[in-house]
Design goal:
CATH topology: Jelly Rolls
CATH class: Mainly Beta
Number of strands: 16
Strand content: 15-25%
Largest sheet: 10 strands, antiparallel
Structural class: alpha+beta
Number of helices: 7
CATH architecture: Sandwich
Distance between the termini: 43 Å
Order of helices and strands: HEEEEHEEHHEEEEEEEEEEHHH
Radius of gyration: 18 Å
Shape: globular
Bound molecules: fe (ii) ion
CATH superfamily: q2cbj1_9rhob like domain
Number of domains: 1
């Protein structure tokens, strides 16, 4: 898919390029470098379960509101996977957010650049940070996420894409997140900076089906900016079914933590493709992740929790 150039001046969000697909995606996979497992990091504050904020009732949109029909949704024994977007809301307390931001900014020097989706990012952040590792495997954190989306959620067994930190600043070439839909289905983005810290950097999404996105034009009323200007604002997106992008930061610094969770009961409907993953992480790193996702299971909730190294979350837990 060809990518459009960025226009200067008051550009439309639709001027942002799209992430490569098809043959170009395979070329990215062949060129992609395996994420590093280092570096040695400075001492981190410890994660504490009380950093999870009391449960809130943020705004929620269904996949039906994006144009998806009931037969296109995931169903499992009377449960329907129909949440498209939730938030923004504060998932952490002020203390928790302060510590999370400290941890994520300290990891910035380990970030790498990419021309695939996000310009500068750290993949597998939970593999180098005990704080992040414990946070996304905390039962209270997972229950909060699961209840808001309406399905049991655990960290994704693919591991490398589970916790990604995106960084951008106003220096040098524009740092963006290209128009894309995620390989992941259940994606939570936590803002580690607010509008007072940077210019630009607007989280933008297309309120329509993914197959309608190619027909969108500048000024299309289905292009929305998510109100994520507050530090700590958290947004859930059914990432594989919603095209989204982030406009360039033109001044200041912006960082977001993107957490991809997984519903063990809908494992067969997982939207990841091998080449989408390999485009970011390279082929050697993608193979073991792929086996953790695709190897058969006997009990989805238990077996996938073992693979993800986290507590078991069942339908009964989120009633
Ligand atoms: Fe995304």
């Amino acid at each position: 898919m060809p990518t459009a150039p960025m226009r200067s001046g008051r550009a439309s969000a639709l001027d942002l390029p799209r992430t490569p697909t098809g043959v170009s995606q395979v070329v990215h996979a062949l060129r992609a470098r395996t994420p590093r497992r280092g570096p040695c990091l400075p001492a981190e504050p410890p994660w504490r379960g009380e950093f999870v904020a009391r449960e809130a009732r943020p705004p929620r949109l269904t996949l039906g509101a994006f144009g998806y029909a009931p037969h296109e949704l995931g169903h499992w024994r009377g449960h329907t996977d129909d949440t498209a977007l939730v938030g923004p809301w504060q998932i952490l307390t002020e203390d928790g957010l302060e510590h999370l931001a400290e941890v994520c900014w300290a990891l910035e020097r380990a970030a790498r650049t990419s021309r695939f989706i996000a310009t500068r990012r750290l993949r597998g952040a939970d593999l180098v940070s005990p704080f992040l590792n414990n946070m996304i495997r905390d039962r209270a954190f997972l229950l909060t996420c699961s209840r808001l989306v309406g399905v049991p959620l655990i960290p994704h067994p693919l591991r490398i894409p589970t916790a990604q930190i995106n960084y951008s600043d106003g220096r040098g070439r524009p740092e963006i997140v290209r128009w894309h839909r995620d390989g992941m289905d259940y994606v939570f983005t936590i803002q580690l900076s607010g509008y007072e810290d940077y210019e630009g950097g607007r989280f933008t999404y297309f309120r329509g089906r993914t197959d309608e996105f190619p027909g969108a034009e500048p000024g299309d009323p289905r292009i929305h900016e998510a109100p994520c200007g507050e530090r700590g604002a958290t947004l859930f997106l059914h990432g594989s079914r919603i095209f989204h992008a982030v406009t360039p930061v033109t001044d200041g610094r912006r960082a977001t933590l993107v957490i991809s969770l997984f519903c063990p009961y809908f494992a067969r409907q997982d939207s990841n493709t091998f080449w989408h993953l390999a485009g970011d992480d390279g082929i050697p790193a993608t193979v073991p992740s792929w086996l953790r996702l695709k190897w058969p299971v006997r009990n989805p909730a238990v077996d996938f929790s073992l693979r993800a190294g986290c507590p078991v979350i069942t339908w009964d837990d989120i009633r």
